[in-house]
Amino acid sequence: MDKVILRPHREESVLRYHPWVFSGAIAQTVGHPQEGDLVGVEAADGRMLACGHYQIGSIAVRILSFDEDPTRPDFWVRMLGRAYRLREAYGLVSSATTNCYRLVHGEGDGLPGLIVDYYNGVCVLQAHSVGMFRAKGAICAALQEVYGPSLKAVYDKSSGTAPFKAGLDLVDGYLWRAPGFEADEQAVLENGKQFLVNWREGQKTGFFLDQRENRARVGQLAAGRRVLNLFCYTGGFSIYALAGGAAHVDSVDSSQRAMDLVDRNVALNGFGAEQHTSYCADAIDFVKNAPEGAYDLIIVDPPAFAKHRGALKNALRAYQRLNAAAIAKVASGGFVFTFSCSQVVDKEAFALAVFSAAAETGRSVRILDRLNQPADHSVNIYHPEGEYLKGLLLYVE
Ligand code: SAH
After folding, report:
1. Shortest CA distance to 4 belongs to which of 200, 38, 361?
2. Which of 9, 207, 388, 389 has a Cα-to-Cα distance from 316 of 20 to 30 A?
3. List of residues 6+ apart from 206 with CB closer than 8 A
4. What global pTM score does this model have?
5. pLDDT digits (tens, 9 = 90+) for 250-275
6. Cα(3) to centroid of ligand 1, in Å?
7. Is the Cβ atom of 257 under 6 angstroms away from ligand 1?
8. CA 67 to CA 81: how far, in whole Å?
């Protein structure tokens, strides 16, 4: 195995189990590793520290192991088995009311660069690194072993996430399908609600599994309320609000394909068109044009406004504008559930943007709760960067 040798004193973060080696920490590369190859990580004094996927770029090595040998044939089964057992321990694997969850959350599961979402027997894999993209055959075989005969398919959805590199054939498709399984879409259960998930055509892996617990909170507070679900995608929050007894739900997304699925999900869960209205529209315009006091509960769950640090300032302004519009419009005694999934916007910065938004409106606003990503989007304590979803439950008088 080729190796990288770190500059003196640059082993500290690796000794603290941080899973990334930045290119600036490397003094020397021994051998000629290809992108995606496994390389050893050695301290300047010759201690072998770790081993991971090599890639050209600011993160030069994504660490897969601090002790065991990732070339062992059972490596993937053992790692996916660990990820599976965490979800099992948390009650997600054998739940009667939920059959979809994130099985692998990258660094959170010790597998930097890999996402695997599980949809009622279908695993959708997303590689974010060359090494994971190259390993997808081995990962697929390990998924078959972990799930056994209950597995229906493994779909690779890496074309939008794997770095484009010469020689990588970035075409999405099935890595494996059980005989007779032909569908690109199926219904899943989340907390007893049904959702159609289309992994081929949907955004990300097909569904936003990270909002499961926050959707349940909306359901608990929706009774009798007029609800506005902004950036609704396939209507996750809308269905929970309806099931929780909302008086009416308006759902807004700029994607017509998403709105088509909202309508199908509303019907699938047995709600009538008189309880729900779909709007394919810009969410910011929609809430700005809404009459004051028209809604008693507003959900604000936009896409990541900042994908990198350079976009932070503009993103914070955008969060402030959007939240000011929602806070200004919600009825007195109403709730606003507001979220940010931008990893570079931390909790404090987001709270500050929402604080500035509230101040702009001059209304009395209280924070009732702070919301997070759920356990299956686990955060490795040695990699706090894995925490990305944050939200606030506001009460507006
Ligand atoms: N709340 C959703 C997930 C939201 S993801 C859920 O629970 O599943 C963000 C969504 O915002 C995407 O569906 C995207 O189509 C939509 N979107 C992006 N920009 C938008 C805009 N300006 N107006 C309305 N929707 C937008």
Report:
1. 38
2. 207
3. 117, 119, 124, 157, 197, 198, 199
4. 0.97
5. 999 999 999 999 999 999 999 999 99
6. 43
7. no
8. 17
